[in-house]
């Protein structure tokens, strides 16, 4: 616990991390002692310790895991690049002293396949590279080469923040700029940012703010990119939002898979605090490997020290959010754009866009393209334009067969729909959505059905389990999808039930890739082609 500071139950996950970092696992007697210190029932600590995938709970008399874990990503991009085969090879090659786990997306899809040795990512991994990292004792990722506080400030950074802070810049003018830009929530939901700011500001004080850097959607790595290159642009946007909306405290939730970025952010926030000591409290919270915590209310539960289970709404987070207070919740990238939009004007941002759409989008592009990576370009660009203009074309020897336009949850489109504008709202006629703009491109070497099965297994693994259609439906669908010929009627009915009756977006979106296969790739699963989809 923290010397001189009373232990707080909401910091439970932080304490669990410390225990595991120190002792290599979570042991039953340690959890009992922690429960006593926090004045919680043991069951409350146990249920949290066993909910999150990154915690290794060891029951009384149980055996601790090996000291070193190598995690091998087997989500979409890494699966296409041989992630599962790599994990199998490593499991025999590294021996019993090293635990090899197949894990969901680690946020580095542009360098697939990826293995993580301790906390050291091995990019474009093969068995030799991973074995060398294990043998050389590489365990920690080096700090990224980001623009630090002094450099950012010297280049004009934080002038806007100082203007907002001093009152020289009217808060209403800031909101008007966001409105003019048409800035929407870029974590995936696409809710207009200006409307969100107004609606939280209209709630009674005290109000809180929660920042979501939990990007766990397979295929998404844009937040990592922004944090690793220009973190203060995000921090400045966050401070401006906090001041305009009038919040009393800020919590930043960052995924456990980004330890170097977490350290970087902690250092830079200290620097910011030294400059402006009267800022509201800012707490950095570490996720623990639960995809569902990217859902805003699940993230809030997690920050409160509980299992990351999405809440029923209403009430909405903007009304009753973190610690019961009205809460402004934003994804990192949404805040990253605030400074540029306010300085250059909403019209500047809205002047980008093509095919009738407005603004800029950050596409995380991975899969069978020559140059995967984060592409910042026009909203409304088509996949064909994106690949040709920004990704160096397809990988040699590969032809476009299909793509995920919005990570694992956004559905799958075939090559013949490569000219559809990519943006919020444009993909609904095809049963797809853009979400966080994670584009995973695949070729004739891949099978849409296998990728959809990969996605469904991922959702089954990540379901928080609190509602039956999602918990049972994802597991059952994953089983059914193994059959050489799919039972289209049963899968469609199952998918509808999950969409209609699941509490949160995970269960509602989980059937999308499966339904896309039935609709656009029926030849792969022995299903009849749907009318109108020729
Ligand atoms: Fe949990 Fe799935 Fe229900 Fe969401 S839909 S609340 S992840 S069980």
Describe this structure in words.
The chain is α/β, with parallel strands linked by helices and about 525 residues long. The chain contains 23 helices and 15 strands. It has helices at about 10-25, 30-40, 40-50, 75-80, 85-95, 125-135, 150-155, 160-165, 170-180, 195-200, 220-230, 230-245, 260-275, 295-305, 330-335, 340-345, 345-350, 385-390, 450-460, 470-480, 490-500, 505-510, 510-520; strands at about 25, 55-60, 70-75, 100-105, 115, 120, 210-215, 250-255, 280-285, 325-330, 360-365, 375-380, 400-405, 415, 440-445. The strands form 4 sheets. A 5-stranded mixed beta sheet has the order 12-11-15-13-14, sandwiched between helices. Strands 4-3-5-6 form a 4-stranded mixed beta sheet, with helices on one face. A 4-stranded parallel beta sheet has the order 9-8-7-10, with helices on both faces. Helix 2 (about 30-40) crosses helix 3 (about 40-50), helix 9 (about 170-180) runs antiparallel to helix 10 and helix 20 (about 470-480) packs antiparallel against helix 21. The protein is globular, with a radius of gyration of 23 Å. The structure holds iron/sulfur cluster. The site of iron/sulfur cluster (SF4) has 14 residues, from helix 20 and helix 22.
Summed up, what is this model?
This protein is of the alpha/beta class and 534 residues long.
Name the ligand types. Answer: iron/sulfur cluster
- The helix fraction, in percent, is 40-55%
Terminal residue distance:
62 Å
Beta fraction of the residues?
Answer: 5-15%
| Sequence of strands across the biggest β-sheet | 12-11-15-13-14
Structural class: alpha/beta
- Global morphology: globular
Radius of gyration: 23 Å
Average pLDDT across residues? 96
Q: List the total number of helices.
A: 23
Poorly predicted runs are none
- Major pleated sheet: 5 strands, mixed
Number of strands: 15
């Amino acid at each position: 616990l923290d010397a001189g500071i009373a232990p707080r139950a909401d910091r439970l996950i932080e304490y669990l991390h410390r225990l595991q970092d120190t002792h290599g696992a979570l042991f039953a007697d340690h959890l009992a002692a922690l429960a006593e210190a926090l004045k919680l029932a043991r069951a409350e600590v146990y249920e949290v310790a066993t909910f999150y995938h990154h915690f290794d709970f060891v029951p009384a008399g149980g055996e601790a895991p090996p000291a070193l874990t190598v995690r091998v990503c087997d989500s979409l991009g890494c699966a296409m690049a041989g992630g599962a085969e790599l994990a199998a090879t490593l499991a025999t090659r590294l021996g019993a002293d090293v635990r090899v786990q197949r894990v969901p997306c680690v946020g580095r899809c542009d360098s697939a396949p990826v293995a993580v040795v301790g906390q050291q990512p091995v990019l474009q991994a093969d068995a030799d590279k991973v074995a060398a990292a294990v043998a050389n004792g590489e365990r920690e990722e080096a700090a990224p080469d980001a623009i630090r506080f002094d450099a950012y400030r010297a280049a004009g950074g934080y002038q806007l923040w100082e203007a907002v802070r001093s009152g020289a810049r009217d808060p209403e003018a800031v909101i008007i700029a966001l409105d003019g830009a048409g800035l929407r929530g870029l974590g995936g939901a696409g809710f207009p940012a200006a409307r969100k700011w107004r609606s939280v500001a209209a709630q009674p004080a005290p109000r809180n703010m929660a920042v979501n850097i939990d990007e766990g959607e397979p295929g998404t790595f844009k937040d990592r990119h922004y944090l690793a290159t220009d973190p203060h642009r995000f921090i400045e946007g966050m401070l401006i939002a906090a001041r305009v909306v009038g919040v009393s405290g800020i919590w930043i939730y960052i995924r456990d898979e980004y330890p170097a970025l977490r350290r970087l952010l902690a250092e830079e926030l200290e620097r910011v605090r030294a400059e402006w000591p009267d800022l509201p409290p800012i707490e950095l919270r570490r996720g623990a490997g639960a995809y569902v915590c990217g859902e805003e209310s699940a993230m809030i539960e997690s920050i409160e020290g509980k299992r990351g289970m999405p809440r029923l709404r209403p009430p909405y987070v903007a009304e009753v959010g973190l610690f019961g207070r009205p809460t402004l919740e934003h994804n990192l990238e949404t805040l990253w754009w605030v400074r540029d939009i306010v300085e250059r004007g909403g019209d500047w941002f809205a002047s980008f866009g093509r095919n009738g759409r407005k603004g800029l989008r950050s596409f995380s592009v991975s899969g069978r393209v020559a140059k995967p990576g984060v592409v910042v370009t026009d909203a409304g660009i088509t996949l064909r334009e994106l690949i040709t203009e920004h990704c160096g074309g397809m990988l040699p020897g590969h032809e476009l067969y299909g793509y995920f336009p919005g990570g694992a949850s956004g559905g799958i489109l075939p090559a013949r729909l490569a000219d559809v504008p990519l943006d919020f709202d444009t993909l609904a006629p095809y049963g797809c959505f853009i979400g966080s703009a994670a584009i995973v491109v695949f070729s004739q070497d891949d099978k849409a059905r296998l990728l959809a099965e990969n996605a469904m297994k991922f959702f089954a693994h990540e379901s928080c389990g609190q509602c039956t259609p999602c918990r049972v439906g994802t597991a059952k669908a994953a089983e059914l999808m193994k059959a050489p010929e799919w039972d289209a009627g049963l899968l469609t009915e199952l998918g509808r039930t999950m969409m209609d009756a699941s509490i949160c977006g995970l269960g509602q979106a989980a059937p999308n890739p499966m339904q896309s296969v039935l609709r656009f790739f029926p030849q792969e699963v022995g299903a009849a082609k749907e009318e109108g989809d020729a």
